[in-house]
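Methods — Computational structure assignment.
A single polypeptide chain was analysed. Its primary sequence is given first, followed by the predicted tertiary structure written as structure tokens.
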Amino acid sequence: MRGSVRIGGPLAALLLIAAACGGSPTAEREDSEGGFGGIRDETADKIADINSELEGLSDEERREELIAMAADEGGIVSVYGSTNLDEMGPIIDEFEDATDVTVNYYRANSEDVLQRLIEEARAEFRGVDVVNTNGPEMTIIDREGLFAPIETPVSEDITQEGVLETWIWMYINTFTPAWNTDAISPSEAPKSWEDVLTKYQGGLAMEAADIDWFATLVKDYFVAEKGMTEDEAVDLFKQAASGGVVVDGHTLMTELLAAGEFDVTASPYLHRVLQLKGDGAKIEWEPAIEPLVARPNGIGIHSAAKSVAAALLFTEFVLTDAQALLPELDRQPASTAVEGGGLPTEYENIVVDAEAVVDELDKWSGLYDEVVRSSGEEVIED
């Protein structure tokens, strides 16, 4: 169904934070209004104490000790995440089989995960131990003081860019244009981002909340590499949206592409394109449009986690054993210990700078809202 044009979800989440905390998220980490500052220190101390106690153990011995500690905490870990159940489900099943620790998983889109965390902090409700979601939302959560510092020996295998003070890359989402092969012949397929945005007037679909994708291409490709001014680059996106369609959600957008509802999509997730193509859908993404835009999905321990050992156990499992499952789910592992893991090297890619996007979220949300409105059509919603 179609809904009215709306401001992207990340901006709505930012406005919620501003209402809760009296301003926009800043580069300086703050204690949440819910009063988790003191608890955050306690959680950090517990993580440090656990690491000190387990220092020198082998990987297998460390896991066995964490399993025992998690059992003492009650044998349950609460996880909030934006990873689809089709993908997180197998990871949770393997974790529960390996550890006998039960996972309570709340799944929602990244904006709703962020909103729930902010609301729980305001209410001083300690409902979650581990969070996994997109990089920009992870950055906002961190700046609100809702992550504890994390130190784990398993981070050594994660791609260097992906190890931060309070959260670690779990996998890498890749944005890539795709097209319906019934509508676009191989000779008509795009060869550049310029082709994607100018060649298919009226047949292009864009996603309603891809602010970070948009900001990254404007700054790091069209301005930095192609020498455009920022205004020129933004106008290119507005022209692309004019007469096209805007869709709320990457999964819906890619499924509608496969159904022939439009010719080209600008920013579907590569893993979903691969899944549908593998199922026989008439869609294609190769030859790849470079640079690919890569955005990390991260994992972190909540600053008010009740089950700290279980949270560390789950986080370490996701960063080790689960990494080998990700390619089977068409996800790009963050671990370089997995063949093909880390940032893809066979293509030129640009990584979304989550810190920079969040710093200027008001600006980029406003500009992308102008792009969305340039379509002149209502946003297509599920």
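Note: The chain has two domains: 11-172+297-333, 177-287+347-374.
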